[in-house]
């Protein structure tokens, strides 16, 4: 189960969607533009998986045409905290990691 959860919260599209939904509630096409270049099919699958795991809520409004909004749940917001911490760590160490990669690549060349 742990591996399954980590696969969901660690894939690039789930991370991007959770981070965007941390800013606001969005409709599908708004979210698709923000998470570009994600395909419609991949966004749909990602949202379904996040909803299945209780990280995203999907609200259908009875209008014509129907309006569907996506938002983070409490569990999704708690994941957002972790993702923001991880992004901060990556930003703080990006230069060092770049240097390490360059050194490694030179040794391997």
From TrEMBL:
Q: Which domain of life is it from?
A: Bacteria
Gene3D superfamilies linked to this entry: Winged helix-like DNA-binding domain superfamily/Winged helix DNA-binding domain
Q: Where does the HTH hxlR-type domain lie?
A: 1-98
Among the Pfam families in the record, one is HxlR
| Coiled-coil regions listed in the entry | none
Query: Which GO terms of the molecular function aspect are on file?
Result: DNA binding
Q: Which InterPro entries match?
A: HTH_HxlR (IPR002577), WH-like_DNA-bd_sf (IPR036388), WH_DNA-bd_sf (IPR036390)
Sorted alphabetically, which keywords does the UniProt record give?
A: DNA-binding, Transcription, Transcription regulation
Specify the protein name. Helix-turn-helix transcriptional regulator
**What is the scientific name of the source organism?**
Streptomyces adustus
């Amino acid at each position: 189960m742990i591996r399954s959860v980590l696969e969901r919260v660690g894939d690039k599209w789930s991370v991007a969607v959770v981070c965007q939904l941390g800013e606001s509630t969005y409709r599908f096409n708004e979210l698709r533009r923000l998470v570009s270049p994600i395909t419609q099919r991949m966004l749909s699958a990602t949202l379904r998986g996040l909803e299945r795991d209780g990280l995203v809520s999907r609200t259908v409004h009875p209008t014509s045409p129907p309006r569907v909004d996506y938002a983070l749940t409490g569990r999704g917001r708690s994941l957002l905290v972790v993702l923001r911490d991880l992004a901060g760590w990556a930003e703080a160490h990006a230069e060092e990691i770049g240097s390490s990669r360059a050194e490694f690549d030179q040794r391997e060349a």
